[in-house]
User: Fold this.
Amino acid sequence: MLEGIIEIYMPDLKYGDSTMARKYSKVRDYVEVNFTAVKAMYRQVGDLRRDEKGIARRGLLVRHLVLPGNLAGTEVVLAFLANEISPHTYLNLMDQYYPCYRAAENPPLDRRLTSAEYREALELARKYGLIRLDDRLARRWPDG
Assistant:
């Protein structure tokens, strides 16, 4: 229905494991439905294209929140993007998870993401050839 109407899609890929999606977000078949939707979005608009000023004009920009203890299944998400969407996918690999509400009842969601966990996610992105990262976050997590 949206083909030819939407110029930029910015979906979240929250989980790479439907079991975790069911447990933490109470949603069924998350991965299957979400991955299918992202494939359709990419088919419609392709890789993100920006103008000479760096402003996005058309394409797919994906967001993925890295969770403590790898609960988001980051490697599965990144492999999907690289292998089934495009290694040129523009990716915002987010680090801002903050435990609140009932997070204390669900370790490891009871803590912030560690620098090692985020660096591991960055390394996985590189491993899969995803180089179009929003690097503003990467600069906040120095190597070491």
